[in-house]
Each structure stands twice: as C-alpha cells, then as structure tokens.
Design goal:
Order of helices and strands: HEHEHEHEEEE
Strand content: 25-35%
Radius of gyration: 15 Å
Shape: globular
Number of strands: 7
Low-confidence stretches: none
Largest sheet: 5 strands, parallel
Structural class: alpha/beta
Length: 166
C-alpha cells in the first residue's frame, strides 16, 4: 500500500498563480470555513488585494444538517462587504462531492445577489455528486471514499494536509 503525500505549500503557490487571472475589477475573496478561510486570508495578503476577505460557513444550509446539527468549531459567516453585484471568488481547500459548495452558495445568496461566483480550490479529489466544477484546482488526486483529506495550519501559517482512512 502506497502512502499519499500532498505538498500543501507547493500547491498553495500554484493556487496563488491560478487565482490571479480569475480576479476581475471589484472581485472579493470568500473562503469556506475553515481551510478555505485560511487560504483566502493568505491569498488576500499575498495578492495585496484591498479590503478584507470574507469567510462563509456551510453549516446552516447543509443537506445533512438534521443529522449533523451545528458544528461547534465553525465560525459564523463574515462578509465585510456588499455582496450585491460583486464578483465573488470562492476559495476552498478540498473539493469532493460538491455538497459544501452548494450549501455555501445558498448561504451567500442570503446576503445578496453577486454578479458571479467563481470557485478555486487547492485540491480536487473527484467523487462529485453534484454538477459543480472549480474554475481552478491547484491539484487533483484520486483517493478512496473512505479516505479523508483535510487542511491543517500551524502557528506560523504554514499549511499541510492530514490524510486519514483506508
């Protein structure tokens, strides 16, 4: 059995380069809690974008809310800008089924109607259950359904992946 290793820092540099052409005049970054929010914060700084990035939670719009309930670790949605008529660049760490993306788009529309929503992710692991595709993915991997990939961040802001399961 081989061990999967993903270099999150190298993939971040690819994401940084891949996001630049997706930015339009008046674009804002919105990171999905938690890994996507970390990435959006870092992209905001590294791209020297004006203003603040937003953070969005999928908790209230998940299709499994009844079984999962509220997540105690999730920060509430924070969008420190007007959403109406803004191009939104949605940032996530790992794209899998597409259900989180569906939930955060619903949450986003609770705040207004953006001009557009574009998705960029650090890793696309396939396995989509909904017709959602990123405009940019820094990496693509194929892993079993039993494996879980999550982003971790240390005190210095360096990111790495945790890969668990069969």
């Amino acid at each position: 059995m081989s061990t999967l290793h993903l270099d999150a820092e190298a993939l971040y540099l690819d994401l940084l380069a891949g996001v630049k052409p997706l930015l339009r005049a008046n674009s804002v970054l919105v990171g999905i809690w938690s890994g996507g929010a970390w990435l959006a914060e870092r992209l905001q700084r590294d791209l020297q974008l004006p203003g603040e990035h937003g953070v969005i939670s999928s908790t209230l719009h998940r299709d499994d809310f009844a079984s999962r309930g509220l997540s105690s670790g999730a920060d509430p949605t924070r969008l420190p800008f007007e959403v109406n008529d803004r191009p939104i660049l949605l940032i996530d760490d790992v794209l899998y089924t597409g259900r989180t993306i569906r939930a955060v788009v619903n949450e986003l529309f609770d705040f207004g109607r953006p001009a557009s929503v574009t998705l960029a992710v650090l890793v696309d692991r396939g396995g989509r259950e909904l017709p959602i595709q990123p405009a940019y993915a820094a990496g693509r991997v194929t892993v079993s359904r039993e494996q879980r990939i999550s982003l971790a961040r240390d005190e210095s802001g360096t990111v790495s992946f945790n890969i668990r399961g069969a």
